[in-house]
C-alpha cells in the first residue's frame, strides 16, 4: 500500500506561481509512475504531468507544457509540481497519484491505484 498526501495549494493571481508537494509513505518502492491530475467543477479528471520513478521520464499535458514542472525528491519520497505562469483555467482540485504497474496509459486515471485527497488551486484573473 502507498499513502499520498498533497499540500501547497492556495489562491493566486494569474501569472503567479504555486508549488505543490505530495508526500509518499508506505511501500512506495513498488510504484513505477507518479502523476498529478486535476479536476475542475463539472469537468472530467485530467492528467497534468507524469514522472517515472527516479525521474528518468516526464510527460506533460499540452495545456501545461513549458509552465509546469514535475520532479521527485527521492530522498524525501516527495513528488513536486512547480506551477508557473498560472492561468484562471488552471483552477481545479489537484491530485497526486501513483501506479504500481509499469505499462500504463500514463494520463488515464483508471490506471492509477493510489490517490491523495487533493489540494485546491484557485487562479484569479
Structure report:
The chain is an all-beta fold and 125 residues long. 0% of the residues lie in helices and 51% in strands. It is built from no helices and 11 strands. A hairpin with a 6-residue loop joins β4 (33-39) and β5 (46-52).
Can you give me a brief rundown of this structure?
This protein has strands at residues 2-7, 10-13, 18-26, 33-39, 46-52, 58-60, 68-73, 78-83, 92-99, 114-115, 119-124. By secondary structure, the chain is an all-beta fold. Strand 7 and strand 8 form a beta hairpin.
Relevant terms:
four-stranded antiparallel sheet, seven-stranded mixed sheet, single chain, mainly beta
Helical run tally: 0
**What is the C-alpha radius of gyration, as a whole number of Å?**
13 Å
Q: Quick check: average pLDDT?
A: 93
In percent, how helical is the residue content?
under 10%
Strand residue content: over 45%
Mass-distribution shape: globular
N-to-C terminal Cα separation, in Å? 40 Å
Count of DSSP strands:
11
**Backbone structural class:** mainly beta
Strand count, sense and barrel status of the largest sheet are: 7 strands, mixed
The helix/strand order is: EEEEEEEEEEE
**In terms of per-residue confidence, which ranges show pLDDT below 50 for 5 or more consecutive residues?**
none
Fold blueprint:
Elements: E1 2-7, E2 10-13, E3 18-26, E4 33-39, E5 46-52, E6 58-60, E7 68-73, E8 78-83, E9 92-99, E10 114-115, E11 119-124
Parallel strand pairs: 2-11
Antiparallel strand pairs: 1-3, 3-8, 4-5, 4-9, 5-6, 7-8, 9-10, 9-11
